[in-house]
Each structure stands twice: as C-alpha cells, then as structure tokens.
Design a protein that fits this description.
With about 70 residues, the protein is α+β, with helices and mostly antiparallel strands. It contains three helices and three strands.
Length: about 70
Amino acid sequence: MDEIEKLMAEGWNIVIECKGKGRVYEMTYEATMKKVGGDPIEQFYTKHHAFGSSLDEIARNLRKTL
C-alpha cells in the first residue's frame, strides 16, 4: 500500500477494481492510472494498466509500466 501512496504523491490518479475469480473465494485486482495535471490530451491518451493478486503486486506492476 505504501507504493501506491507514493505513486499518488507523484501525481498519479489510480483506480483499483477488485474482482472475484470464478467460483472460488479468491480475489484479483485490476488498476488503471493516469497523470493528474499537465496537457489534457496527454491525460486522455496516456493510461497505464496492471493486474495482480495483491495491492503490492499491483503497485509493482504499475511501476513497470512507466
């Protein structure tokens, strides 16, 4: 969770969705982030996506997309 907070402090808007995995009681996460402020066209077209089974994994995968 600390890594997600660091990304947000750097000016990233992060949306995280929690999704169920079929009929088993497991969860997976999907995240999208885009930069806040700056050029509106860049904000619209530049989005980063990541998937993971924990919030820490989501944060690592979001960092990899930069």
